[in-house]
Structures are given as C-alpha cells and as structure tokens.
Amino acid sequence: MPRSMTNSQPLVSIVVPAFNAERYIDETVRSLLAQTYPNIEILLLDDGSTDQTWSLLQRYSSKCYVETHPNMGQAATLNKGWARARGEIIGYLSADDLLMPQAVEVAVAELRKMPEIALVYPDYQLMDEASRLLSIVQAPDYSYDEVVLHGQCPVGPGALFRRTLFERAGGWDTGLRQIPDYEFWLRTGLFGDMVHIKHVLAAFRVHESSQTFAVADEKKASEYLYVMNKYFARTDIPEKIRTRRRIAYSSAYILTARLHLRSGRFRAGFRALTMALQQSATTSFRKGSIKLILNGLVGRFKHAIKYALLRTFKRIF
Question: Which of 9, 148, 179, 260 is the least buried, fewest Cβ under 10 Å from its Cβ?
C-alpha cells in the first residue's frame, strides 16, 4: 500500500524530456511555472538536441533544474529525471504539451483524498501547432482489464503518481519507442489503482512530427507483441487476467495491424489481423477492434484532413 501523505503540500516533481523542441518548449515550461500549486520541482532535461532547445532551457536555470546529456531517448531521459527527482509525487510532461494552471493543485488534492490510489489522470484538450483548440478528449475511467485485454491506454498528459509506484514498478522500458507509456501503465497497474479526474487539466499538441501523424516502422509496430510477451512472463499477474491471455494477444495483433496499415504495409497488416483471428475471433470482431482497423486504413489521412479543416476554419473565423 502506498504511504499516506502527511504534508498538506507535498513536493511534486515534474520531468520534461526535450529533444529538438525549440518550437514549443517555452510555452511548455511557462505552463509549469504558472501552476497555482506552490511546491513544485521542475526538471528540464535536454536529450542531446541539435537545435536551440538547450539554449532555451538554460534561461530557466534560476527556477528549474536544467541539464543536458548525449541523446539516449525519451524513456532513458525520463528514468534519469525521475531517479533524481525529490518529490513525493512525480510526473512528466512532453516538451510540446501544456498543463492548465490548476492541474497540479487539483491532482494533488485527489491523491491526498485517496491514499490507496497510486495515480490520477485528467481529461485534456487536443491543440494544433499554434496552440489552437481542436477538441476535448474525455479519457475513459480506469479499468485494468481494459488496459491488459484490449490495449487501452487511458492515461494522457497531466498524470501524477506517487514516488512509491515508481520505486516498486521501475521506470519506462528503454527499448521501446512507440508505446513506452502503455507498457509503463500496464506494469504499474499491478501495484495500485488509478483514478480519472473528470476535468480538462492538460493539452496535447497534434502536429506533423507528433506520434499521431508519424509513420511507425516495422520495429515500432512489433512493440505490442513484445510488451505482451514481457507482461505474461511475469509471475504476479492476476489469475483472471492470465486465463484470458488469448484475448490480450488478439488485441495486441489488432493494434499491430493498425500501425502497419497506417504506414501502408498492408500485407503485414493483414497478416497481423489473421493472427488476431486465430487468437480470438470474438475479440477481433468487437466494435472497438473494428474501429481500430478502420483507423489503420484511413485514420492518418482522416486526421490530417480533419485538423487541416479545423485550422482553416479557425483562421477564417
């Protein structure tokens, strides 16, 4: 069980891993410095950027911890920051995302109300490269069964969790590039429950270099199966989950197929769909699975058109 917080304003440490983030990093850092919660440690780690990111971060050295190191990837940078962080509560923010001014204050209040809870996460906005609102994402309520069996990743920007969770579960898997966050929430779900805060407290930026648009190569597309193999090799999985592993693998193949299809590798995508059917036909034909497959076929193009139209509409009006 996580320890209770006796301090009414426990230290919160937020790590920002930054790689070639010169376009957005100032806005991201300003959103952290504008928090209404008074006891925050901000760690800005430059991951070997080749643009002006490190120069920009140095401007905040009087208010934040800043450091640069040779490029080693987001996961390793985050783990380094969390290991150095002093807070009883920790989190991270991508270098192009934002927090609303009361985000940390609200999240800490929720954690203090529920000492048995390991992590809280909010709803968030989608915004474009110019920080214009595109839509609101109402995150799903937390269900560990959905996370494992259907690949749901409910946790987005603005999540905070207790240091004890990091100490028990470990950090991000440094071998992952596409879904290190999902693997982390999958693993940490074994050590404590998570609670959805039904308020918009963060903003996730959608742009052409973001994961939403980026083409996943074959190695990245294979990560769902790697994560399932790693997870089911554990000895501490609940029995009700272990007995339904074919459902989890079917979902993993569908998510793999989605990445292949989005990237134009249709033969590989249909091979993955065949494997999904062999694992569980019922899972393959569930509504959520069909939506993922359709997203793989037309999703990237659809999102590009949708956000282009939204940007045009906002400029006109």
Answer: 9
- Look at residue 5 and tell me if it is in a domain: no
Domain count, the chain: 2
CB 170 within 8 A of CB 187: yes
Structural domain that includes position 233: 218-316
74 inside domain:
yes
Span 285-311, pLDDT tens digits: 888 888 888 988 886 555 555 555 555
Amino acid identity, residue 80?
Answer: K
In the structure encoding, which two tokens stand for residue 242, read together? Answer: 């272990």
Distances (CA, A) of 317 to 94, 163, 180, 311: 30, 46, 39, 10
Query: Which H, E and C letters describe 8-58, residue by residue?
Result: CCCCEEEEEEECCCCCCHHHHHHHHHCCCCCCEEEEEEEECCCCCHHHHHH
Extract the tokens encoding 211.
């994961």
pTM of the model: 0.87
Phi, psi torsion values for 137, nearest 5 degrees: -100, 115
